[in-house]
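Please check this today:
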Amino acid sequence: MPIVPPSKLAQLQSNTRNIRNVCVLAHVDHGKTTLSDALLATNGIISSKLAGKIRYLDSREDEQQRGITMESSGISLYHKQTENDTEYLINLIDSPGHVDFSSEVASAARLSDGALVLVDVLEGVCTQTVSVLHQAWVENVRPVLFLNKLDRMIVEWRMTPSEAYTHMQQLIEQVNAVLAGFWEGDRLAEDSRMLDEAKERWRETHGDAPMSE
């Protein structure tokens, strides 16, 4: 795809209804920055052959040296829906995956309308995967699950198509179970809060008299 000129991006910025902020969240080394490179290649910012190698959004020297993202960084991308030719400006935010930089993840999620949550198909749901899912849940950011590194199932584990399908299905169920746990926790907290409020109202009107069943 040819490079999108800055004038086009500036034009899209004037239509706030078609601007979307999207962050990329995942456990460390699950492929966030490589995915970001691939998305940048669709706008002609870098060559598709360099995706995953140049680590374009890792702009700090120590990030390039250590090979990990340490600070959230963003870039504006052009997207056109093929169904109705609607044009969007996507503000993509690449966030760190290491637990030491969780504050950067929180900031990225707080600024976003949606989140791409990456999961390495072989490593599965890891501790930081749960953390970033929880951060998205707390900030009311709708997550989109992205199963990454599918080739590893074939190259490293020599899975058959049916085995790969079953494995990916189990990963999706694991992510759904994590989200269900968040919902259940919020529901219990809400029930506890309502019970405490009911007890307080009872004490205000009945004193220390026991509450009826």
The mean pLDDT is 88. The two ends are 68 Å apart (CA to CA). The longest strand covers residues 19-26. The CA atoms of residues 4 and 198 lie 59 Å apart.
